[in-house]
């Protein structure tokens, strides 16, 4: 299940609750209710949903008097909801590598990243006989990796694959070899001609690829 990230400019009650937990070592439902200015029952409804989504964990906190209190904390999975700067850090590292060892080393690193993805997919796709099923499986895998991918069949041997999100968009814009390596990987995995038509890194709404069977492409 994909989780919606925190919106710091317009935080919902859910976002405010998550932020309070992020800035604490754990809070009870009553503590959260007081800080949010809502009822404990309303807070518990949010907590039930967050626990169902795997975003919080609970533990019992012993007290000197009375029953133990249930303490809520964010799970490791919830980290993904908060702002990350992985693309900035990766971009800085690649620029430093380029300065120290030259652009060829950067391209080698970027190609190795794509190669790892290829190694994960190669065995399954090698056993997939039809281009349609290979495109479908590739799209499903990319979607699961956070590329928000869709695909459609245009005719018997022509397909379009669209990626609406790029987890390393800034890096892709600064180091075009990233995208070229991905396009080449798709050609190898799909055993087809792959042509990029739109590109997120240049401001398009998605990265789209026209995919055609080799014999169709050769006939044109």
From TrEMBL:
Native source species: Thermomicrobium roseum (strain ATCC 27502 / DSM 5159 / P-2)
Name used for this protein in its record: Helix-turn-helix type 11 domain-containing protein
Question: Coiled coil where?
Answer: none
Q: Which InterPro entries match?
A: ArsR-like_HTH, HTH_11, WH-like_DNA-bd_sf, WH_DNA-bd_sf
Q: Pfam families this protein is in?
A: HTH_11
> One GO BP annotation here?
regulation of DNA-templated transcription
Helix-turn-helix type domain: residues covered: 14-61
